[in-house]
Specification:
Distance between the termini: 50 Å
Number of domains: 3
Number of helices: 10
CATH topology of the largest domain: Rossmann fold
Structural class: alpha/beta
CATH superfamily of the largest domain: von Willebrand factor, type A domain
CATH architecture of the largest domain: 3-Layer(aba) Sandwich
Largest sheet: 6 strands, mixed
Number of strands: 20
Order of helices and strands: HEEEEEEEEHEEHHEHEHEHEEEEHEHEHE
Strand content: 25-35%
Shape: globular
């Protein structure tokens, strides 16, 4: 297998203008950080694998169609990096057992976490024989802080292009202060290579517009159908000092177009913003410390787009954290759990919104919260418990039935009722402000019962994040 892999690399180098001598291996780890993550190197039939050395993970989560559908991309690997195949239709033998017998979602992060068993889910295996195109947008930070790893990233990009199947599509965007589309999304390798050779001559900049660069990269995938696998792979160290775009802009665009973001950080990268982008779009965060790490990550991402178990199901409705646990059962060993998560809380990701509304119901002309809205308060309390820095203003709004003074008092009383309910669920009262607006701020004209119902609402304004 190693001989085959290096033969492939040699062919790629010749195709891209001949072999080049790479710089010495960079290694920015301390002795306590020498752990190496398992990477995907090939495939093995389930009948030939040592089940004692198997592990599993959820490599990608698609939640763009929530609450109608969730898609989990699951891998089953052995400890040498081989993905285990033939465990689900259409490749599983008829006599084989059910390798994926249970799926459960855990809702929320508080002590009163809820659990929902998913009774109707489908598992479908995809492999090399399936001609599903992969759509990959590469975003490469070319600022001065990336100088030490540029040669290795360029080398890995050559490998990426060389391993592309005829029906796969790749785009490349490079950025520092300026942003350049090296080549748009295309399946034509002959179009990519000349453009890539020109990109290699591109000078590095002093400043970094990471968020602007990522957003422009995402837009190269705009026309790809929603149901086709699409990923944006970002190679960066997290530095940001020039963008007009924010993390929230990237998240909104990625969610709308079903794009998962995979961030690859280098050395002592600013992890948090890169991890957030990966987490909130259903992707994954990688950390590369060495040249070997980086090349393995390139291969891991590309191969994982070709070999996976796709789990599709309708999730429970919950405006908060969802943790999906898929049971993987191989005869002869303990049960394994493939765990993935996605977050539908209105407080995530950071910087995406300043306010949100929830349909909290009250008794007619009173400030007593209807029991049917208790679940909303539970979800909000859970989110506030998770995000301890957040301070909210609770706003009460009414329709125009009744006088101005009456509605002003009613809206304030309802805001206070919501605050009290959250405090009763363990939230510190100093993190909650209240304000009543009566009918002074309608979202629609009060010209029908339906519109009046829309104006009777509770709005939460985020004062601190």
């Amino acid at each position: 297998m190693n001989i085959l892999r290096w033969c492939i690399l040699a062919v790629v180098c010749v195709a891209c203008g001949g072999p080049r001598k790479l710089q010495q291996n960079f290694d920015l780890r301390t002795e306590g950080e020498k752990k190496v993550e398992l990477r995907f190197v090939g495939t093995k039939h389930v009948d030939s694998v040592d089940v004692r050395n198997v592990r599993t993970d959820v490599w990608k989560v698609e939640h763009y169609a929530y609450p109608d559908s969730i898609r989990l991309f699951v891998r089953v690997l052995d400890t040498t990096g081989f993905v285990v195949t033939h465990m689900a239709a259409p490749y599983k033998a008829d006599s084989a057992p059910d390798y994926f017998p249970q799926l459960v979602e855990h809702l929320g992060a508080r002590r009163k976490q809820k659990h929902a068993t998913i009774t109707d889910y489908r598992v479908r295996e995809y492999g090399e024989a399936d001609s599903v195109p992969a759509n990959i947008a590469l975003a490469i930070d070319c600022s001065g802080s990336m100088k030490g790893v540029k040669e290795t990233i360029d080398y890995g990009t050559e490998i990426f292009i060389g391993l592309k199947r005829s029906f796969d599509n790749v785009s490349l965007t490079a950025y520092h202060k300026d942003i350049r589309t090296v080549f748009p999304l295309t399946s034509d390798t002959a179009e990519m290579l000349p453009a890539f050779r020109e990109y290699r001559k591109m000078s590095q900049g002093l400043f970094t517009a990471t968020y602007d660069g990522i957003l422009k990269t995402l837009k190269t995938l705009e026309r790809v159908p929603l149901d086709q696998p699409k990923v944006c792979v970002v190679f960066a160290d997290g530095d940001e000092n020039q963008s007009t775009a924010k993390v929230g802009d990237i998240f909104e665009y990625a969610t709308k177009h079903n794009i998962s973001i995979y961030c690859v950080g280098f050395g002592y990268a600013r992890d948090e913003p890169l991890q957030d982008l990966s987490l909130y779009t259903g992707g994954k965060y990688y950390r590369a410390y060495t040249k070997k790490d980086l090349l393995a990550i390139f291969m891991d991402i590309y191969r994982s787009l070709r070999n996976y178990y796709l789990v599709t199901y309708t999730p429970p409705r919950y405006e908060g954290l969802h943790v999906a646990d898929l049971t993987v059962q191989l005869p002869g060993r303990d049960t394994l759990i493939a765990r993935g998560q996605y977050d539908k809380s209105p407080l995530v990701p950071p910087d995406i919104r300043d306010e949100f509304s929830r349909p909290i119901l009250f008794a007619f002309n009173q400030s007593t919260i209807d029991t049917s809205s208790y679940y909303i308060l539970d979800e909000l309390a859970d989110a506030l418990e998770r995000f301890e820095r957040v301070v909210l203003e609770v706003q009460g709004h009414t329709d125009n039935i009744g006088g101005e003074e009456f509605n002003l008092r009613l809206s304030m009383a309802r805001a206070e009722a919501v605050k009290s309910a959250l405090v009763g669920r363990g939230i510190d009262a100093t993190r909650l402000r209240t304000k009543g607006y009566g009918f002074s701020m309608p979202v629609v004209p009060n010209d029908s019962p339906e519109n009046q119902a829309k104006n009777r609402r509770t709005v939460f304004r985020i004062l601190r994040k």
